[in-house]
Every structure is written in structure tokens, then in C-alpha cells.
Design a protein that fits this description.
The structure is a single chain. Helix content is about 40%, strand content about 15%. With about 180 residues, it is of the alpha/beta class. The chain has a domain at about 5-125: Rossmann fold (3-Layer(aba) Sandwich), CATH 3.40.50. Helix 6 packs across helix 7.
């Protein structure tokens, strides 16, 4: 899978393949330590974040890549002068082999992949989705219960604006886990 944009892109089979890879990385980290050697990953956050941004940067470095980043792109990038997401992607793809973005607009990810020549990872889009967090949440559920099917899951919190909840519900319902 080239991009991580929406939880709607995952099937039960692709989730299981992804989680098997995650298990392998967890159990054999030395095997993957140079997986991204020689690569540069841009981590661009238009909204405040500590845990998500640092988690991505740490993961990228643990896989052997270098990181270029900004933690407040809404204020301290050309976005403050009106640069569009599309223009930002066109520029950054010249510097990086992949781009990880958190953005305050709901549709930025779909717009970004239309112009990008490098993989895009959605680290949160407005109130719409946060697929990477939900992929991790579901992985944690799988670790805890040893399975993903026939589970009853209660979803609590901000159901209207909670992008992680929106994504998790999509994952839980994909192919009737």
C-alpha cells in the first residue's frame, strides 16, 4: 500500500498482513533497523501534537531514515502566506522520499495524493480521520484479545469531531471483523 490516507482503504486481509508485519518488527527489531536507510521522511504538522509527531519521528529514525520536520506549519511555513496543500506537497516531495502530515482541513489527504509522487501518510485530518492512530488502536485490541473478529467494542468520547473514533469505527466494520 503506497499511501495511508483513510481506514476505508483496508480490508480484513490487508489489516492482518499489516499486523503480521508489525508483530515481526516488534519481535525482530534488528532485522528492520536499516529498512529506510538512505531515505528522508518529512514530518509536517499543521496542528499541535507531541505524542503523534514524536512517535512518527522516532519510528522513522529507528528504521534508519533521516527526518526533516516542522511542528507548527500553520504558522511557521508558507501556509501562513496562503500556500495550498498541493503546492506544499509539490515542494516537499523534492526534499523527501515520504511525507507524514497532520492538517486541520478534512480533505487535505485526498488533495495531497493527487499531486504527490512520494507516499503520503495521514497523521490526522481535521475532524475526519486519524487512520494511523486507529490502526494502532486496533492492533492493541488484537494483541489483548488475540483476534479481531466477534468482539463487542464500545466507542466513547467526542463522536462528532473525534477523528480517531471515526477511523476506528471504519476499521472495526471493514469486512465485518
Amino acid at each position: 500500500m503506497r499511501n495511508v490516507i483513510s481506514c476505508e482503504q483496508y480490508s480484513k486481509e490487508t489489516l492482518e498482513n499489516l499486523y503480521e508485519l508489525a508483530d515481526s518488527i516488534t519481535n525482530n527489531p534488528a532485522k528492520y533497523i536499516k529498512s529506510l536507510e538512505g531515505k528522508i521522511v518529512a514530518v509536517i504538522f499543521y496542528e499541535p501534537s507531541t505524542r503523534t509527531r514524536l512517535s512518527f519521528e522516532t519510528a522513522v529514525m529507528r528504521l534508519g531514515a533521516n527526518v526533516i520536520s516542522t511542528e507548527n506549519a500553520k504558522t511557521y511555513s508558507s501556509a501562513a502566506k496562503g500556500e495550498t496543500v498541493e503546492d506544499t506537497i509539490r515542494v516537499i516531495q523534492g526534499y523527501a522520499d515520504a511525507i507524514i502530515i497532520r492538517h486541520y482541513e478534512d480533505d487535505w489527504a485526498e488533495r495531497a495524493i493527487k499531486v504527490s509522487t512520494v507516499p503520503i501518510i495521514n497523521a490526522g485530518s481535521g475532524k475526519k480521520e486519524h487512520p494511523t492512530q486507529s490502526l494502532l488502536d486496533l492492533y492493541t485490541i488484537r494483541q489483548k484479545f488475540g483476534r479481531l473478529d466477534n468482539l463487542k467494542v464500545a466507542v466513547l468520547g467526542d463522536l462528532l469531531y473525534g477523528r480517531t473514533i471515526h477511523s476506528l469505527v471504519k476499521l472495526l466494520s471493514c469486512n465485518k471483523l
